[in-house]
Protein backbone atom coordinates (compact mmCIF):
# COMPACT_ATOMS: atom_id res chain seq x y z
CA UNK A 1 0.00 0.00 0.00
CA UNK A 2 1.50 3.37 -1.07
CA UNK A 3 0.88 6.84 0.29
CA UNK A 4 2.09 10.36 -0.43
CA UNK A 5 4.48 12.14 1.90
CA UNK A 6 5.24 15.83 1.29
CA UNK A 7 8.33 17.54 2.68
CA UNK A 8 8.25 21.33 3.14
CA UNK A 9 11.50 23.20 2.55
CA UNK A 10 11.02 26.89 3.45
CA UNK A 11 14.08 28.19 1.60
CA UNK A 12 12.76 31.75 1.51
CA UNK A 13 10.09 31.17 4.13
CA UNK A 14 6.42 30.28 4.13
CA UNK A 15 3.34 32.40 3.47
CA UNK A 16 -0.18 31.54 2.40
CA UNK A 17 0.38 32.50 -1.25
CA UNK A 18 3.71 30.63 -1.37
CA UNK A 19 2.10 27.45 -0.06
CA UNK A 20 -0.79 27.62 -2.53
CA UNK A 21 1.49 28.31 -5.52
CA UNK A 22 3.87 25.49 -4.54
CA UNK A 23 0.96 23.05 -4.25
CA UNK A 24 -0.35 24.13 -7.65
CA UNK A 25 3.12 23.75 -9.18
CA UNK A 26 3.30 20.24 -7.76
CA UNK A 27 -0.34 19.32 -8.53
CA UNK A 28 -1.54 21.55 -11.42
CA UNK A 29 -4.52 19.25 -12.06
CA UNK A 30 -6.25 20.73 -9.00
CA UNK A 31 -6.25 24.31 -10.29
CA UNK A 32 -9.77 24.28 -11.74
CA UNK A 33 -11.26 22.61 -8.68
CA UNK A 34 -9.62 25.20 -6.46
CA UNK A 35 -11.02 28.08 -8.52
CA UNK A 36 -14.50 26.55 -8.44
CA UNK A 37 -14.19 26.19 -4.67
CA UNK A 38 -13.65 29.94 -4.34
CA UNK A 39 -17.12 30.49 -5.81
CA UNK A 40 -18.52 28.85 -2.67
CA UNK A 41 -17.55 31.94 -0.63
CA UNK A 42 -19.95 34.83 -1.42
CA UNK A 43 -17.72 37.51 0.18
CA UNK A 44 -14.99 36.62 -2.32
CA UNK A 45 -17.17 37.26 -5.39
CA UNK A 46 -15.17 40.36 -6.33
CA UNK A 47 -11.84 38.63 -5.96
CA UNK A 48 -9.79 37.37 -8.88
CA UNK A 49 -6.73 35.18 -8.55
CA UNK A 50 -3.77 34.89 -10.86
CA UNK A 51 -1.66 31.75 -11.08
CA UNK A 52 1.34 32.54 -13.24
CA UNK A 53 4.58 30.76 -14.15
CA UNK A 54 7.54 32.48 -12.52
CA UNK A 55 11.32 32.30 -12.70
CA UNK A 56 13.98 34.15 -10.74
CA UNK A 57 16.65 33.04 -13.24
CA UNK A 58 17.64 30.28 -10.84
CA UNK A 59 14.46 28.27 -10.27
CA UNK A 60 11.10 28.05 -12.01
CA UNK A 61 7.74 27.57 -10.40
CA UNK A 62 4.50 29.44 -9.84
CA UNK A 63 3.29 32.60 -8.18
CA UNK A 64 -0.19 33.00 -6.71
CA UNK A 65 -1.67 36.47 -6.33
CA UNK A 66 -5.06 37.88 -5.41
CA UNK A 67 -6.49 40.85 -7.32
CA UNK A 68 -9.42 43.07 -6.40
CA UNK A 69 -10.48 46.62 -5.70
CA UNK A 70 -10.70 46.25 -1.91
CA UNK A 71 -7.58 44.53 -0.62
CA UNK A 72 -6.50 47.09 1.97
CA UNK A 73 -6.33 46.51 5.71
CA UNK A 74 -9.53 44.92 7.01
CA UNK A 75 -10.69 44.55 10.57
CA UNK A 76 -12.75 41.39 10.88
CA UNK A 77 -13.85 39.66 14.05
CA UNK A 78 -12.95 36.00 14.31
CA UNK A 79 -16.58 34.84 14.84
CA UNK A 80 -17.70 36.57 11.62
CA UNK A 81 -14.90 34.98 9.57
CA UNK A 82 -15.65 31.62 11.15
CA UNK A 83 -19.28 32.00 10.04
CA UNK A 84 -18.19 32.92 6.51
CA UNK A 85 -16.47 29.55 6.29
CA UNK A 86 -19.12 27.49 8.06
CA UNK A 87 -21.99 29.05 6.07
CA UNK A 88 -20.31 28.46 2.70
CA UNK A 89 -21.15 25.65 0.29
CA UNK A 90 -17.68 24.12 0.43
CA UNK A 91 -17.37 20.45 1.29
CA UNK A 92 -17.35 19.70 5.01
CA UNK A 93 -13.74 18.51 4.90
CA UNK A 94 -12.59 21.76 3.30
CA UNK A 95 -14.65 23.77 5.79
CA UNK A 96 -13.08 21.86 8.66
CA UNK A 97 -9.55 22.45 7.45
CA UNK A 98 -10.10 26.12 6.63
CA UNK A 99 -11.74 26.55 10.02
CA UNK A 100 -8.76 24.91 11.71
CA UNK A 101 -6.28 27.28 10.03
CA UNK A 102 -8.41 30.27 11.02
CA UNK A 103 -8.73 28.97 14.59
CA UNK A 104 -4.96 28.71 14.96
CA UNK A 105 -4.63 32.31 13.79
CA UNK A 106 -7.28 33.51 16.23
CA UNK A 107 -5.79 31.56 19.15
CA UNK A 108 -2.38 33.12 18.48
CA UNK A 109 -3.86 36.62 18.35
CA UNK A 110 -5.85 35.98 21.53
CA UNK A 111 -2.67 34.90 23.33
CA UNK A 112 -0.70 37.90 22.08
CA UNK A 113 -3.33 40.51 22.97
CA UNK A 114 -4.73 38.83 26.09
CA UNK A 115 -8.36 38.67 24.97
CA UNK A 116 -11.02 35.96 24.72
CA UNK A 117 -11.18 34.02 21.46
CA UNK A 118 -14.55 35.44 20.37
CA UNK A 119 -13.24 38.97 20.94
CA UNK A 120 -10.28 38.60 18.59
CA UNK A 121 -10.09 41.09 15.74
CA UNK A 122 -8.01 39.95 12.78
CA UNK A 123 -6.41 42.80 10.88
CA UNK A 124 -4.06 41.85 8.03
CA UNK A 125 -5.24 38.22 8.08
CA UNK A 126 -8.86 39.39 8.02
CA UNK A 127 -8.49 40.79 4.51
CA UNK A 128 -9.99 39.06 1.45
CA UNK A 129 -6.60 38.02 0.09
CA UNK A 130 -5.67 36.25 3.34
CA UNK A 131 -9.06 34.53 3.47
CA UNK A 132 -8.49 33.46 -0.14
CA UNK A 133 -5.12 31.96 0.81
CA UNK A 134 -6.73 30.03 3.68
CA UNK A 135 -9.61 28.67 1.59
CA UNK A 136 -7.34 27.70 -1.34
CA UNK A 137 -4.82 26.03 0.95
CA UNK A 138 -7.57 24.05 2.70
CA UNK A 139 -8.99 22.88 -0.63
CA UNK A 140 -5.60 21.73 -1.97
CA UNK A 141 -4.64 19.93 1.24
CA UNK A 142 -7.86 17.91 1.11
CA UNK A 143 -7.71 17.34 -2.64
CA UNK A 144 -4.24 15.79 -2.53
CA UNK A 145 -4.92 13.66 0.58
CA UNK A 146 -1.35 13.59 1.89
CA UNK A 147 -0.72 10.90 4.50
CA UNK A 148 2.18 12.69 6.22
CA UNK A 149 4.00 16.03 6.18
CA UNK A 150 7.51 16.91 7.27
CA UNK A 151 9.32 20.23 7.40
CA UNK A 152 12.83 21.65 7.56
CA UNK A 153 13.92 24.32 10.03
CA UNK A 154 12.16 27.65 9.55
CA UNK A 155 13.91 31.00 8.94
CA UNK A 156 13.05 33.48 11.71
CA UNK A 157 13.60 36.71 9.77
CA UNK A 158 15.02 40.00 11.02
CA UNK A 159 13.90 43.59 11.34
CA UNK A 160 10.45 45.11 11.66
CA UNK A 161 7.12 44.69 9.87
CA UNK A 162 4.30 47.24 9.57
CA UNK A 163 0.93 46.24 10.98
CA UNK A 164 -2.34 47.71 12.19
CA UNK A 165 -0.69 47.90 15.62
CA UNK A 166 2.33 49.80 14.29
CA UNK A 167 5.78 48.37 13.69
CA UNK A 168 6.33 44.91 15.15
CA UNK A 169 9.57 42.93 15.57
CA UNK A 170 10.17 39.89 13.38
CA UNK A 171 9.13 37.19 13.68
CA UNK A 172 5.77 38.79 14.42
CA UNK A 173 4.29 38.00 17.88
CA UNK A 174 1.47 35.87 16.41
CA UNK A 175 4.03 33.92 14.38
CA UNK A 176 6.07 33.28 17.53
CA UNK A 177 2.95 31.80 19.17
CA UNK A 178 2.23 29.60 16.16
CA UNK A 179 5.81 28.33 15.84
CA UNK A 180 6.32 27.40 19.50
CA UNK A 181 8.04 24.03 19.66
CA UNK A 182 9.23 24.20 16.04
CA UNK A 183 12.93 24.46 15.05
CA UNK A 184 13.90 27.89 13.69
CA UNK A 185 17.17 29.44 12.56
CA UNK A 186 18.53 32.86 11.65
CA UNK A 187 20.24 33.02 8.25
CA UNK A 188 21.08 36.71 8.66
CA UNK A 189 18.70 38.01 6.02
CA UNK A 190 16.31 40.85 6.80
CA UNK A 191 12.58 40.74 6.14
CA UNK A 192 9.47 38.76 7.07
CA UNK A 193 10.10 35.11 6.33
CA UNK A 194 7.11 33.44 7.97
CA UNK A 195 3.72 35.16 7.85
CA UNK A 196 0.91 34.45 10.32
CA UNK A 197 -1.14 32.72 7.60
CA UNK A 198 1.84 30.61 6.53
CA UNK A 199 2.54 29.66 10.15
CA UNK A 200 -1.12 28.73 10.75
CA UNK A 201 -1.19 26.54 7.63
CA UNK A 202 1.99 24.82 8.83
CA UNK A 203 0.56 24.29 12.32
CA UNK A 204 -2.60 22.74 10.84
CA UNK A 205 -0.50 20.17 8.94
CA UNK A 206 1.20 18.96 12.15
CA UNK A 207 4.48 18.23 10.31
CA UNK A 208 7.32 16.08 11.60
CA UNK A 209 10.74 17.70 12.00
CA UNK A 210 12.76 14.50 12.43
CA UNK A 211 15.66 14.08 9.98
CA UNK A 212 15.23 10.31 9.95
CA UNK A 213 12.65 8.88 7.58
CA UNK A 214 12.14 5.48 6.04
CA UNK A 215 13.22 5.08 2.37
CA UNK A 216 10.80 6.69 -0.08
CA UNK A 217 10.59 7.19 -3.84
CA UNK A 218 10.77 10.81 -4.99
CA UNK A 219 7.88 11.55 -7.37
CA UNK A 220 7.90 15.32 -7.85
CA UNK A 221 8.50 18.82 -6.56
CA UNK A 222 6.81 22.21 -6.66
CA UNK A 223 8.11 25.76 -6.16
CA UNK A 224 6.01 28.62 -4.84
CA UNK A 225 7.52 32.10 -5.05
CA UNK A 226 6.95 34.96 -2.64
CA UNK A 227 6.66 38.61 -3.60
CA UNK A 228 9.88 39.74 -1.87
CA UNK A 229 13.41 39.23 -3.19
CA UNK A 230 16.55 38.25 -1.29
CA UNK A 231 20.08 38.77 -2.45
CA UNK A 232 21.83 35.51 -3.23
CA UNK A 233 18.83 33.30 -2.47
CA UNK A 234 15.54 32.38 -4.12
CA UNK A 235 12.49 33.49 -2.15
CA UNK A 236 10.78 30.17 -2.69
CA UNK A 237 8.91 27.51 -0.78
CA UNK A 238 9.75 24.06 -2.14
CA UNK A 239 7.52 21.03 -1.71
CA UNK A 240 8.86 17.58 -2.54
CA UNK A 241 6.48 14.66 -2.84
CA UNK A 242 7.41 11.06 -2.11
CA UNK A 243 5.66 7.76 -2.64
CA UNK A 244 6.14 5.79 0.53
CA UNK A 245 5.04 2.25 1.08
CA UNK A 246 3.30 1.80 4.38
CA UNK A 247 5.87 0.36 6.77
CA UNK A 248 5.42 -1.45 10.04
CA UNK A 249 8.01 0.87 11.60
CA UNK A 250 7.89 4.61 12.11
CA UNK A 251 10.55 7.15 13.11
CA UNK A 252 10.26 9.88 15.71
CA UNK A 253 12.34 12.12 17.94
CA UNK A 254 12.18 11.41 21.64
CA UNK A 255 13.94 12.85 24.69
CA UNK A 256 16.02 10.75 27.03
CA UNK A 257 16.61 12.04 30.59
CA UNK A 258 19.07 10.49 33.04
CA UNK A 259 20.20 11.05 36.63
CA UNK A 260 21.46 9.18 39.69
CA UNK A 261 20.11 9.00 43.23
CA UNK A 262 22.12 7.71 46.22
CA UNK A 263 20.54 9.50 49.18
CA UNK A 264 16.80 8.84 48.87
CA UNK A 265 15.10 5.89 50.51
CA UNK A 266 13.82 3.14 48.17
CA UNK A 267 10.28 3.65 49.45
CA UNK A 268 10.26 7.39 48.75
CA UNK A 269 12.10 7.03 45.42
CA UNK A 270 9.43 4.56 44.33
CA UNK A 271 6.74 7.14 45.10
CA UNK A 272 8.64 9.86 43.22
CA UNK A 273 9.25 7.72 40.12
CA UNK A 274 5.62 6.67 40.09
CA UNK A 275 4.61 10.33 40.02
CA UNK A 276 7.09 10.99 37.21
CA UNK A 277 5.74 7.99 35.26
CA UNK A 278 2.25 9.51 35.35
CA UNK A 279 3.46 13.01 34.39
CA UNK A 280 2.41 14.52 31.04
CA UNK A 281 4.79 13.63 28.23
CA UNK A 282 6.54 10.72 29.97
CA UNK A 283 6.68 7.52 27.93
CA UNK A 284 8.64 5.20 30.21
CA UNK A 285 10.71 5.18 33.41
CA UNK A 286 13.33 2.56 34.25
CA UNK A 287 15.86 2.25 37.06
CA UNK A 288 18.82 -0.01 37.71
CA UNK A 289 21.63 -0.23 40.28
CA UNK A 290 24.99 1.36 39.56
CA UNK A 291 28.26 2.12 41.34
CA UNK A 292 28.65 5.84 42.05
CA UNK A 293 31.39 8.05 43.46
CA UNK A 294 33.33 6.84 46.52
CA UNK A 295 32.19 3.32 45.61
CA UNK A 296 28.68 4.01 46.86
CA UNK A 297 25.74 2.06 45.48
CA UNK A 298 23.39 4.35 43.56
CA UNK A 299 20.25 4.12 41.44
CA UNK A 300 20.51 5.16 37.81
CA UNK A 301 17.19 6.49 36.44
CA UNK A 302 16.43 6.74 32.74
CA UNK A 303 13.29 8.38 31.38
CA UNK A 304 11.86 8.52 27.85
CA UNK A 305 9.66 11.54 27.21
CA UNK A 306 8.19 13.72 24.49
CA UNK A 307 10.79 16.24 23.33
CA UNK A 308 8.16 18.99 23.57
CA UNK A 309 7.82 18.41 27.33
CA UNK A 310 11.47 17.70 28.15
CA UNK A 311 11.99 20.78 30.34
CA UNK A 312 8.78 20.19 32.29
CA UNK A 313 9.72 16.52 32.82
CA UNK A 314 13.21 17.52 33.98
CA UNK A 315 11.68 19.94 36.48
CA UNK A 316 9.38 17.16 37.72
CA UNK A 317 12.43 14.92 38.29
CA UNK A 318 14.10 17.64 40.36
CA UNK A 319 10.90 18.02 42.38
CA UNK A 320 10.16 14.35 43.07
CA UNK A 321 13.69 13.01 43.70
CA UNK A 322 16.77 14.10 45.64
CA UNK A 323 18.96 14.47 42.54
CA UNK A 324 20.61 17.85 41.99
CA UNK A 325 20.77 17.66 38.20
CA UNK A 326 19.24 15.96 35.17
CA UNK A 327 20.98 15.21 31.84
CA UNK A 328 18.87 15.12 28.71
CA UNK A 329 19.17 14.91 24.93
CA UNK A 330 16.97 14.12 21.95
CA UNK A 331 17.50 10.90 20.02
CA UNK A 332 15.89 9.08 17.09
CA UNK A 333 13.53 6.23 17.89
CA UNK A 334 12.09 3.56 15.62
CA UNK A 335 8.82 2.02 16.79
CA UNK A 336 6.36 -0.54 15.48
CA UNK A 337 2.93 0.48 14.34
CA UNK A 338 0.50 -0.63 17.01
CA UNK A 339 -3.09 -0.26 18.10
CA UNK A 340 -5.16 -0.85 21.20
CA UNK A 341 -8.13 -3.12 20.52
CA UNK A 342 -10.83 -4.92 22.49
CA UNK A 343 -11.57 -8.60 21.88
CA UNK A 344 -15.12 -9.64 22.71
CA UNK A 345 -16.28 -13.22 23.23
CA UNK A 346 -19.12 -14.96 25.02
CA UNK A 347 -17.00 -15.26 28.17
CA UNK A 348 -15.15 -11.94 28.42
CA UNK A 349 -14.21 -8.55 27.00
CA UNK A 350 -10.40 -8.37 26.86
CA UNK A 351 -8.27 -5.29 25.96
CA UNK A 352 -5.09 -5.96 23.97
CA UNK A 353 -2.22 -4.18 22.26
CA UNK A 354 -1.51 -5.35 18.69
CA UNK A 355 1.72 -4.58 16.81
CA UNK A 356 2.76 -5.24 13.23
CA UNK A 357 6.29 -6.66 12.91
CA UNK A 358 8.67 -5.83 10.01
CA UNK A 359 7.92 -9.19 8.37
CA UNK A 360 4.21 -8.29 8.18
CA UNK A 361 3.17 -10.58 11.01
CA UNK A 362 1.16 -9.34 13.98
CA UNK A 363 1.72 -9.96 17.67
CA UNK A 364 -0.87 -9.40 20.38
CA UNK A 365 -0.49 -8.83 24.10
CA UNK A 366 -3.31 -8.85 26.62
CA UNK A 367 -3.35 -5.78 28.85
CA UNK A 368 -1.62 -6.58 32.16
CA UNK A 369 -4.09 -4.50 34.16
CA UNK A 370 -6.92 -6.69 32.89
CA UNK A 371 -5.02 -9.86 33.82
CA UNK A 372 -4.59 -8.55 37.37
CA UNK A 373 -8.36 -8.78 37.84
CA UNK A 374 -8.39 -12.57 37.22
CA UNK A 375 -7.78 -15.00 40.07
CA UNK A 376 -5.35 -17.87 39.54
CA UNK A 377 -2.22 -18.29 37.41
CA UNK A 378 -3.73 -21.10 35.35
CA UNK A 379 -6.81 -19.05 34.37
CA UNK A 380 -4.69 -16.02 33.48
CA UNK A 381 -2.33 -18.12 31.38
CA UNK A 382 -5.13 -19.85 29.45
CA UNK A 383 -7.00 -16.61 28.78
CA UNK A 384 -3.84 -14.83 27.64
CA UNK A 385 -2.80 -17.59 25.24
CA UNK A 386 -6.27 -18.17 23.79
CA UNK A 387 -7.10 -14.51 23.16
CA UNK A 388 -3.66 -13.55 21.81
CA UNK A 389 -3.58 -16.49 19.39
CA UNK A 390 -7.07 -15.74 18.12
CA UNK A 391 -6.30 -12.04 17.51
CA UNK A 392 -2.98 -12.88 15.81
CA UNK A 393 -4.78 -15.25 13.41
CA UNK A 394 -7.22 -12.52 12.41
CA UNK A 395 -5.45 -9.23 13.23
CA UNK A 396 -7.12 -5.81 13.00
CA UNK A 397 -5.87 -2.97 10.82
CA UNK A 398 -2.84 -1.38 12.53
Give structural notes.
The protein has 398 residues and is an alpha+beta fold. The chain has three domains: 2-247, no CATH class; 250-335, Alpha-Beta Plaits (2-Layer Sandwich); 338-393, no CATH class. The chain is built from eleven helices and 19 strands. The strands form seven sheets. The chain has a four-stranded mixed beta sheet with strand order 6-1-12-11. A four-stranded antiparallel beta sheet has the order 14-15-13-16, covered by helices on one side. Helix 1 crosses helix 7, helix 3 packs antiparallel against helix 4 and helix 4 crosses helix 7 (196-205). The radius of gyration is 26 Å and the shape is globular. It starts with a strand and ends in a 5-residue tail after the last helix. The relative contact order is 0.13. The model has no long low-confidence stretch (mean pLDDT 89).
Largest sheet features: 4 strands, mixed
Q: How is the largest sheet built, in terms of strand order?
A: 6-1-12-11
Distance between the termini: 13 Å
Strand-residue proportion: 25-35%
Shape: globular
Helix content: 25-40%
Average pLDDT works out at 89
Oligomer: single chain
Cα-based radius of gyration, to the nearest Å: 26 Å
- What structural class should be given to the helix and strand makeup? alpha+beta
DSSP helix count? 11
Would you kindly provide a brief summary of this structure?
The protein is an alpha+beta fold and 398 residues long. Helix content is 32%, strand content 31%.
Topology, pairings included?
Elements: E1 2-9, H1 16-26, H2 31-38, E2 48-55, E3 60-67, E4 76-77, H3 78-86, H4 92-113, E5 121-122, H5 128-144, E6 148-151, E7 154-155, E8 160-163, E9 166-169, H6 173-178, E10 184-185, H7 196-205, E11 217-225, E12 236-245, E13 249-261, H8 266-277, E14 282-291, E15 297-305, H9 310-320, E16 327-336, E17 338-344, E18 349-356, E19 362-366, H10 368-371, H11 377-393
Parallel strand pairs: 1-6, 7-10
Antiparallel strand pairs: 1-12, 2-3, 4-5, 8-9, 11-12, 13-15, 13-16, 14-15, 17-18, 18-19
